[in-house]
Write a structure and sequence with these properties.
Helix 17 packs across helix 18, helix 22 packs across helix 23 and helix 24 packs across helix 26. The longest helix has 24 residues. The termini are far apart. This protein has 27 helices and 31 strands. By secondary structure, it is of the alpha+beta class. The chain binds FE2/S2 (inorganic) cluster. FE2/S2 (inorganic) cluster binds next to loops.
Length: 906
């Protein structure tokens, strides 16, 4: 057999049954990614004799005698193909994990296919971008600005990793080689609730190449939460690395460490586990009813479980004013109960990592995480290791969306590395990702609202039941967030909240973009529209009369968690105006029959710019001998764009260009704590720390210039890479030389404690057409206005909005993890789950409010998770406007819409 890969001939035979994807990666072509291994996502796309194929579906031997082109060989050595250039110019990526496959597919399209991208790109999923920038790349649009001129902050500068991403050379978690690597596979529970009586390892240990079988007998006893927060008290201690009780189908039971994945899988199949089946409960209402099976009956308030005897992990109740009186006095009122479903993040890079002990005794963990520092802290505590003997870091992360604010694999990696003393790898399959990692919390939300005849709210009440699944990671914080900004954005003298998060024997929910707000907003924003409709007031005007304005208290019961939130800036009024104007503009209407009903809908949302109760970042920056600045930040880059913006902030504060800023990030070995890349804190918190560090260094540069010239440091300014004072103009290179000669290091640090917090706003508008005969839905127009403060990078920020809308549309219209009556996820594949593809996502018109935040770095606010929040709510309002029917169960699938439409329209 001979294979030609990128023009080079190989004669290594593949292993029996090996697919082309793994074969190519073993030959060193690491730009070939694994997203699903089922031919659904396209991350592994290569060209076979010029045609795009999903290499995970092609047996490697089929490449015999054919020419394979991977992204590494696409443009020749060190070259850049025009299409790669186009992806750079349009910034047709965020995390970049899909990009190599996407470029190769795009490169193979003929003119006719380019006219029908809906069909041509159906085999390539991008979870981040919303696809419009991919269309921009194909259209030759230039979305970036020149990085070397002008002030860096506020400009659409390209991501520093871009050139590596389009060449398939950006290193993700598994894009490395480690000698002597051993592989971990996990045996998972087939039962929703069971006690493990015993595990017979005998047969498994007989499999050639198996080195260890790890069970609860090998695991530490300590309880922890997979959720990672700065404060451990935010989550219950209810999880063991490997437990004697399994509480959902898919929970890990044992780990096998072997020379190959195949041997580890075979050993998993041979493990004999004796289970005592326990009664299970899947429905949250049943779970909190008297007599329900107890899922964590052994836990107490010491474990921070609110009421284990009722399966309640967290709850919050509060009222101010008198809601009953407010409803009684209202001219109009509305009550509705809404349900939301279980949605998966579906980041293209699955959870996983590598762990090894190095020669100095440091335990290294390289994982796909949003929280390296908090993971290090948890691992050190769990395995009783000195923190300085544990290093956690990540390379580029292939998407996160909150799903990697969890410690789901690192615990097993450490257990295996310590037990075997060898480097180990654990990479979850797509199916494992669906059945055993976290999801959005499904919620049942009842809203009651009243308004007087002038449209002023008199009462607003939420009753929430959140299903956290088998473990309580993020249960409480998501619940509190769900009932905070969703109602605190409205002024109302009488507000009440009763909210409970409960355990069920289903896979655990966790952090997900928006963190509970998208679920409750569907109910609150529906209520506002319904009140407006009864009063004959426009949805825009109803919101204007009730939404908070600067100076208004932002209160929601119970209130105490929400201190230190201020109006660092306010652009909600602008956002509403921008959407109203854009929605009023005429658009070319498609030819639709009278079966199609047209409607408009809007929703608004407010979000605190930092999570409450602590979010910390320490950064440092120094002027290096090569006269560039080295900026060290702890936060991770997973397509959220912080590495671009941090360089922009530092370059602006130091009056230089971004190409002079070298970034080291997301590695506990570099020092400087960072709570993590979640809650949109990457810019607001780590960006503030970056600004502080850079401004401190700027002061040092001026002080040195003053010292060198015997002048007042206060009279110096920094300008275009120089310290300047009158006739003096000292280049940074000269300052660096002078410092070196004096044995001085030009270095400064900066910290942000993430407080006080500001607020950011989003308003979404949709025009939809609903087919009254089928329930089919078309989006005719999508507009979002965002108040991101002073926009640090308009191109990137627009990408966050477009991507957030696309991801949220999937959740609003069709995404749903389905669980059968034995607790099994029945659609754990992209093919059956339906992540939006190119054809599903309309172009969203994006507008920005003109504000500047007095708290955020250089006037900026966070804007990566909040664009998701108003989408389903606005869509629900648009469907109600079109059909006259208020649909209350999300997703708004045609088969949900159809029965009600049939009843009304026949
Ligand atoms: Fe496409 Fe992240 S950029 S999946």
């Amino acid at each position: 057999m001979t294979f030609e890969v990128n023009g080079k001939t190989f004669s290594n035979p593949p292993r029996p049954g090996q697919c082309l994807r793994t074969f190519l990666r073993e030959l060193g072509h690491l730009g070939v990614k694994k997203g699903c291994d089922a031919g659904d996502c396209g991350a592994c796309t290569v060209l076979l004799d010029g045609d795009p194929v999903h290499s995970c579906l092609i047996p490697a031997f089929r490449a015999d005698g054919h020419a394979v082109t991977t992204i590494e060989g696409f443009a020749g050595v060190n070259g850049t193909h025009p299409l790669q250039r186009a992806f750079l110019d349009a910034q047709g990526f965020q995390c970049g994990f899909c990009t190599a496959g996407m470029i190769l597919t795009c490169a193979s399209l003929n003119q006719a296919q380019r006219q029908d991208l809906d069909a041509a790109l159906k085999g390539n999923i991008c979870r981040c971008t919303g696809y419009r920038v991919i269309q921009d790349a194909l259209d030759g649009r230039i979305n970036i600005e020149d990085a070397t001129t002008g002030t860096a902050f506020g400009r659409s500068l390209p991501a520093p990793a871009g050139p590596l991403i389009v060449r398939g050379a950006a290193p993700y978690t598994f894009d490395t080689t480690i000698d002597g690597l051993r592989h971990i596979k996990l045996l998972r529970s087939p039962h929703a609730h069971a006690r493990i009586i015993g595990i017979d390892k005998t047969d498994a240990l007989r499999v050639a190449g198996v080195h260890a079988v790890l069970t609860h007998e090998d695991a530490p006893d300590g309880l922890f939460s997979t959720a990672r927060h700065e404060r451990d008290w935010m989550d219950p201690d209810d999880t063991r690395v490997l437990d004697t009780i399994v509480r959902f189908v898919g929970q890990k039971v044992a780990a096998v460490v072997a020379d190959s994945e195949a041997a580890a899988e075979e050993a998993c199949r041979r493990l004999k586990v004796d289970y005592e089946i326990l009664p299970a409960v899947f429905d949250p209402a049943a779970a909190i009813a008297d007599g329900a099976p107890l899922i964590h009956g052994d836990k107490t308030s010491m474990h921070r479980v609110a009421n284990a005897a009722r399966n309640i992990v967290a709850e919050t109740h509060g009222e101010f004013g008198d809601v009953a009186r407010g409803l009684a006095e209202a001219a109009v009122s509305y009550e509705g109960t809404f349900t939301t479903q279980r949605v998966q993040h579906a980041a293209l890079e699955t959870h996983g990592g590598l762990a090894w002990l190095d020669a100095s005794g440091i335990l290294n963990i390289r994982s796909s995480t949003q929280v390296p520092f908090l993971t290090r802290r948890a691992l050190a505590g769990l395995f009783k290791l000195p923190p300085d003997k544990v290093r956690v870091f990540c390379e580029r992360v292939g998407g996160g969306f909150g799903g990697k604010q969890e410690m789901l694999v690192e615990d097993i990696l450490v257990l295996a590395a310590l037990r075997t003393g060898r480097p180990v790898k654990l990479e979850l399959t797509r199916e494992e990702q669906f059945v055993a990692t976290s999801t959005r919390h499904p919620m049942r939300v009842t809203v009651k609202a009243g308004a007087d005849k002038d449209g002023r709210l008199t009462a607003l009440q939420l009753d929430v039941l959140s299903n956290t699944g088998a473990y309580g990671n993020h249960a409480g914080p998501v619940l509190f967030h769900a009932v905070s900004e969703s109602i605190s954005v409205y002024n109302c003298p009488n507000k009440k909240v009763d909210a409970i998060a409960c355990y069920t024997n289903t896979l655990p929910a966790g952090a997900f973009r928006g963190y509970g707000l998208p679920q409750t907003l569907i109910a609150v924003e529906a209520a506002i529209d319904e009140l407006a409709r009864q009063l004959g007031i426009s949805p825009y005007e109803m919101r204007r009369r009730n939404m908070v304005k600067p100076g208004d208290p932002m209160l929601s019961p119970p209130g105490s968690e929400y201190h230190d939130v201020r109006y660092g800036s306010y652009g909600l009024d602008q956002c509403l105006d921008l959407v109203e104007r854009a929605m009023a503009e005429e658009i070319p209407s498609p030819q639709l029959s009278t079966d199609w009903l047209i409607g408009n809908g809007i929703a608004l949302t407010m979000i605190d710019t930092v999570p409450p109760a602590g979010h910390v970042a320490d950064c440092s920056i120094r002027l290096c001998d090569d006269e560039r600045f080295e900026l060290t930040v702890g936060t991770a880059e997973f397509g959220n764009g912080t590495s671009t913006v941090h360089r922009q902030i530092a370059a602006t504060a130091l009056a230089t260009s971004v190409d002079r800023i070298r970034l080291r990030q997301s590695d506990t070995a570099h020092g400087g704590h960072d709570t993590g890349a979640y809650g949109s804190a990457g810019i607001f918190v780590a960006g503030s720390a970056t600004q502080a560090a850079a401004e401190n260094l700027a002061r040092e540069l001026k002080a040195l210039a003053g010292q060198m010239t015997g002048s007042d440091p206060g009279s110096w300014i920094l300008e275009a890479g120089h310290a300047v004072c009158g006739q003096h103009r000292l280049p940074y290179a000269e300052l660096a030389r002078s410092a070196r000669a004096a044995g001085q290091t030009l270095q400064a640090s900066g910290t942000s404690a993430g407080t006080p917090r500001s607020v950011a706003f989003n308003v979404q508008g949709f025009r939809v057409a609903v087919n009254k005969g089928t329930g089919a839905l078309k989006i005719l127009k999508s507009v979002q206005a965002a108040d991101a403060g002073r926009v640090a990078n308009p191109m990137q920020c627009r990408g966050q909005v477009e991507g957030g809308v696309a991801q949220s549309l999937g959740a609003a219209l069709y995404e749903e993890l389905l669980i059968d009556d034995e607790g099994r996820v029945i659609n754990p594949k992209f093919r059956d789950y339906h992540v939006p593809s190119f054809a599903d996502v309309p172009r969203t018109e994006v507008h920005f409010a003109d504000t500047s935040d007095s708290i955020g770095p250089m006037g900026a606010k966070s804007m990566s998770e909040s664009p998701y929040n108003p989408v389903a709510a606005a869509l629900g309002n648009a469907i109600a406007d079109a059909t006259g029917i208020r649909f209350t169960d999300v997703p708004f699938k045609p088969d949900r819409l159809f029965p009600e439409l049939l009843k009304k329209f026949g």
